Automatic annotation (TrEMBL), chain B:
Organism: Rhizobium oryzicola
Keywords: Cell membrane, Membrane, Transmembrane, Transmembrane helix
Lineage, top ranks: Bacteria, Pseudomonadati, Pseudomonadota, Alphaproteobacteria, Hyphomicrobiales
Main location: membrane
UniProt name for this protein: Branched-chain amino acid ABC transporter permease
Annotated localization: Cell membrane
Pfam family membership, one: BPD_transp_2
Membrane topology according to the record: Multi-pass membrane protein
Entry-linked PANTHER family: HIGH-AFFINITY BRANCHED-CHAIN AMINO ACID TRANSPORT PROTEIN BRAE (PTHR30482:SF10), HIGH-AFFINITY BRANCHED-CHAIN AMINO ACID TRANSPORT SYSTEM PERMEASE (PTHR30482)
Domain of life: Bacteria
Transmembrane segments: 6-24, 57-77, 84-103, 123-141, 170-193, 205-232, 239-257, 263-279
Keyword Cell membrane appears in the UniProt entry: yes
Length: 243, 309
C-alpha cells in the first residue's frame, strides 16, 4: 500500500472537516475522491501534504508513518500536491516556476526531469522565459502539474484540476492524468467532475460532510443510482454512463 | 569635487543601502515600515563605540551591522507572525520603541545626541553602496533569491513545495536589519553626529517609497528609486526658481522674483508618487520591463535564457 489513511480527523476552530476517514491507495493506481463543496476534500489533501495538523488518526506513506512530518519531508519522500486553482508563481517566469518544483532535489537528475517536463509540455518550453501570469488557464494548469513532476513524485495529488478549464482542455487534462499513471505515477484525484474522474480512476471514495460514505470501483460507483441521485447530481452520472 | 556634490553622493549612497535593507524583506513579501529604527540602531552602535571606547571605523561598521542583523533576526520571529497591514504597523511601532528607548538612555546622549569622534569621507559610503548593490544582485540570482520571490508570490504553495517560508523570511529580515545598520553606521561616521530625531518616521516612509516605487521584483528597483527620489529634490531646488521666474515673466512681472516656497518640492514629490501608483503600481522597474529592454538591446528575437538556471 503506498498511502494508508486511518481514522483521520481534521478539525478547524469550529468545524470538523474530516471525520475518521479511511482511505487506501495502492502503488500505480488512480484513485478519485468525490464530493460536493464543503465535503472535506481539500481539508483531506491539506492534511496529506502537511499544511494542517490532523486532530487524530494516522497517515502512512510507503509503510512509514508521516502523520506529523513537515511538508518538506513529505515532498522528499515523493508526495506532491497540485493545489486547487492553479496556484503558480505569477511574477516568475515559466522556467523559474519549474525550478521551484526541484527546490528539494539533492541529486543532479532533476535537470533531466526538467527536460522531460519540457518535452511533455512543448507549450511550456516555448514560453520558458515568459511571466507565468501571461499563460492561459490551461497552460497554467500544465505549469502547476509540470512543477509537481520536476520533484519526481511517486504520488501526485490533484485538487480539482479541471476547475474552470474549457471542455476541450478538460479532455486533454484527463488524457494527461492517464498518461502520467502509465508512466508509473500513483494519482489521487480530487474532483467535482465526477463523470470524467470515474472514467480515468480505478476506484473512488465519496465524501460527505467529512465522512467517507461510499467507496468502490469506478464501475460500481458510476452505476450506483442512489449515489448519483444523492451525492453527485443526476446530470453528472448520466454523462459518465453514456461516455 | 565640491562639498555640495560630496554631500549629495554620501546621502545617495546611504539611501541606496537603506533601500536595499527594505528591499530584501519586501522581495520575500514583507513590508518593513520601521527602517529608521534599524538605521538608528546602527548609527548609535557606531557612535557609542566610537565616543566611549575610541573604536576605529573598521570595527564599528561591522558591529553596527551585527546589531541591526541580530535585532532584525530575533524580532523577525514575533514580527513575522503578523501579516500585511499588521506587519506594517508592527514594524512602524518597533521603530518608535527603538527611538523612545534611545531618547531615554543617558549613555546614548538622550535628546542631546552623540558626537562621533571618528570620521569617514564620501568614498567609504560610495564603495559600501556599490558592494551592497552587487551583493543584492548576486543574492537575487541564487536559489535563495528564487525562493524569496516565490514566497512573495504565494507563501502557501512555496511551503507545499518543501521550502521553509518562515526561515527564508527571517533571514531576509535579518539581512535587511544588517544593511540598515550599515547605512546607520555610515551616516554616523559621515556626519560625525547622531541625533535620534533624524531617524524619524519620515525616513521609514521615504525608504519604503523608494523601494515600492522603484519596484520590488528586481534588484534594479531600489537603486533607481533611491537615486530618483534623492536627486529629485536637489534638481527641483535649482529648477523651481527658474520656472517661477519664467511664469512671472509671461505675466509681465520684471525685477527680482522671490524664490518659491520650499513646500513646492514636496507637493511635486507627492504628486509624482500618486502618478506612479496609478501608472506603475508594480514599480518603475518590473521584470517585464527588463525583458523588453534586453530584447530591444539584443535586436529582434534574441531572447535571453533564464538567468537563474
Amino acid at each position: 500500500m503506498l498511502l494508508e489513511i486511518r481514522d483521520l480527523d481534521v478539525r478547524y476552530a469550529r468545524t470538523h472537516a474530516v471525520k475518521s476517514a479511511n482511505l487506501d491507495i495502492k502503488e500505480g493506481e488512480i484513485v478519485t475522491v468525490l464530493g460536493a463543496n464543503g465535503a472535506g476534500k481539500t481539508s483531506l489533501l491539506r492534511a496529506l501534504q502537511g499544511a494542517v495538523k490532523p486532530a487524530g488518526g494516522k497517515i502512512r506513506f510507503a509503510g512509514e508513518d508521516i502523520t506529523h512530518m513537515s511538508p518538506a519531508d513529505r515532498v522528499r519522500r515523493g508526495m506532491m500536491l497540485v493545489p486547487e486553482g492553479r496556484q503558480i508563481f505569477v511574477s516568475m517566469t515559466v522556467h523559474e516556476n519549474l525550478l521551484m518544483g526541484a527546490y528539494l532535489r539533492q541529486d543532479g537528475d532533476w535537470v533531466r526531469d526538467l527536460k522531460e517536463v519540457y518535452e511533455r509540455f512543448p507549450n511550456l518550453a516555448n514560453r520558458r522565459d515568459m511571466k507565468a501570469s501571461t499563460l492561459s488557464g490551461g497552460e497554467q494548469q500544465m505549469l502547476a502539474i509540470g512543477r509537481a513532476l520536476v520533484s519526481r513524485p511517486r504520488l501526485v495529488m490533484l485538487d480539482e484540476p479541471s476547475l474552470g478549464l474549457s471542455p476541450l482542455f478538460v479532455n486533454n487534462l484527463f488524457e494527461l492524468i492517464t498518461q502520467l499513471n502509465r508512466d508509473g505515477i500513483t494519482i489521487l484525484l480530487v474532483e467535482q467532475n465526477t463523470g470524467m474522474a470515474l472514467e480515468v480512476a480505478a476506484r473512488g471514495y465519496v465524501l460527505e460532510l467529512g465522512s467517507v460514505v461510499l467507496s468502490g470501483t469506478s464501475t460500481d460507483l458510476s452505476q450506483n443510482s442512489a449515489l448519483a441521485e444523492a451525492y453527485l447530481g443526476g446530470g453528472h452520472a448520466k454523462t459518465s454512463q453514456t461516455a | 569635487m565640491s562639498g555640495y556634490m560630496t554631500g549629495i553622493l554620501t546621502v545617495l549612497s546611504i539611501n541606496i543601502i537603506m533601500a536595499y535593507a527594505i528591499f530584501l524583506p519586501a522581495a520575500a513579501g514583507q513590508l518593513n515600515l520601521g527602517g529608521a529604527g534599524f538605521q538608528a540602531l546602527g548609527a548609535y552602535a557606531t557612535a557609542f563605540l566610537s565616543a566611549k571606547y575610541g573604536t576605529p571605523s573598521w570595527a564599528t561598521i561591522p558591529a553596527a551591522m551585527l546589531v541591526g542583523g541580530l535585532v532584525g533576526g530575533v524580532l523577525a520571529f514575533p514580527l513575522l507572525r503578523t501579516k500585511g497591514v499588521y506587519l506594517v504597523l508592527a514594524t512602524f511601532a518597533l521603530a518608535e520603541v527603538i527611538a523612545g528607548a534611545i531618547l531615554n538612555t543617558t549613555a546614548l546622549g538622550g535628546a542631546m545626541g552623540l558626537s562621533v569622534p571618528d570620521y569617514v569621507g564620501a568614498n567609504v559610503p560610495m564603495i559600501a553602496a556599490a558592494c551592497v548593490t552587487l551583493f543584492v544582485f548576486y543574492l537575487m540570482a541564487t536559489r535563495f533569491g528564487l525562493v524569496m520571490r516565490a514566497a512573495h508570490d504565494d507563501d502557501v504553495v512555496t511551503d507545499l513545495l518543501g521550502a521553509n517560508v518562515r526561515a527564508i523570511r527571517v533571514v531576509a529580515f535579518a539581512l535587511g536589519g544588517a544593511l540598515a545598520g550599515l547605512s546607520g553606521a555610515l551616516y554616523a561616521l559621515a556626519f560625525s553626529f547622531v541625533d535620534i530625531s533624524t531617524f524619524n518616521a519620515t525616513i521609514s516612509i521615504y525608504v519604503l517609497l523608494y523601494v515600492l516605487l522603484g519596484g520590488t521584483q528586481t534588484a534594479f528597483g531600489p537603486i533607481l528609486g533611491a537615486t530618483f527620489f534623492t536627486l529629485l529634490p536637489e534638481v527641483l531646488r535649482s529648477v523651481l526658481p527658474q520656472v517661477k521666474a519664467f511664469l512671472a515673466g509671461i505675466f509681465g512681472q520684471t525685477g527680482a522674483i522671490a524664490p518659491p516656497d520650499e513646500s513646492w518640492r514636496f507637493i511635486i514629490l507627492g504628486l509624482l508618487t500618486v502618478l506612479m501608483m496609478i501608472f506603475r503600481p508594480e514599480g518603475l522597474v518590473t521584470r517585464t520591463f527588463i525583458e523588453r529592454l534586453k530584447g530591444a538591446l539584443r535586436g529582434q528575437g534574441a531572447r535571453r535564457k533564464g538567468a537563474v538556471a
